[in-house]
Design brief:
The protein has two helices and two strands; from the N terminus they run ββαα. It is an alpha+beta fold. It has one domain (5-67). The longest helix has 13 residues, at 27-39. The mean pLDDT is 82.
């Protein structure tokens, strides 16, 4: 299974760019939702081609595990 990575670029104007790697399909939105709710208003979403790809069942189980944690 590939590694799931979430990177944050904090710009000088205070905006935060969130970059998710290693996740296919719509689980990216589910995985990042609690983080985005904590950070504040989301200005835009830009999905990569991986967003439109079906993810392997092994990765789905990993995402479900991560979703079950309280990140606040």
């Amino acid at each position: 299974m590939s590694q799931t990575t979430i990177r944050f670029n904090i710009k000088t104007n205070g905006t935060v760019e969130e970059i998710v790697e290693g996740v296919k399909g719509h689980s990216c939105d589910t995985l990042t939702k609690p983080i985005e709710e904590t950070l504040g208003d989301v200005l835009t979403h830009t999905h990569t081609p991986d967003f439109y790809t079906e993810m392997p069942s092994e990765q789905k189980e990993h995402i479900e595990y991560l979703e079950g944690h309280d990140w606040n």
